[in-house]
Give the backbone structure.
Amino acid sequence: MTELAIYPCLRGRVAIVTGGGQGLGRAFVRRLAAQGVIPIIAQRNFNVAKALQDELLAHGAKSMAVATDISDEASVEAMISMALDAFGRIDILVNNAAILKHLKIGPFWQLPIDEWRGAIDVNITGSYLCARAVVPVMQAAKWGRIINLSSTTILSGRGGYLHYTASKAALIGMTRAMARELGEWSITVNSLLPGTTKTESERTSAEDAYFESARKQQSIQRLAEVDDHARALLFLCSEESRFITGHSMVSDGGRSFL
């Protein structure tokens, strides 16, 4: 939190980060807070979000933890209302929350339909609900940033993850369509595609051998860190990216290219 801000344009902005209490979301929240952004930590598990809020508060940074189920319209609307009541603005939305580690992995013809629907409800519908809820506020301000977290699994078509991969691919189309519709208000919409990254959220389907295999396929020969993706996110949130919209930014050390 003592790091010198490299994007002073972000100071005082308010950012909603869904799934912001853990994994990549937590790295995003920490990076944004270090720039003087006020993060809204929207997390289904409130205790996880509150722990991060307390951490930021101990470093003198404002934030707010909100228990949120992004697949539930009423829960999303309540989270937006709380953010506006507390800070009067919403400038940035990071659609980060997604189902992955709890999904069953296997051939797509054997996946239970409830697993498919769960991925769609959270990864696609949840992102849509959050974007729809923040747009009126951003339109009124004639400024906004929406970043949809996709995944490089859509580039590799990794087997066993059809529900997850399909949902993340849909976010690319959503990003481009939203960018077309929101440019009039200087609202940019972009996708960030992180590569294979270890977080504290363990995935039984991702063994150490898989991470090592991914590293060997990269141009940059080291394992990705969550902060690598957080730095990319900052750029997409800042004024430096003001003429970039509808774009898919790949952050994977050169393992794949668009």
Q: What stands out?
A: The domain at 10-251 is CATH 3.40.50.720 (Rossmann fold). The mean pLDDT is 90.
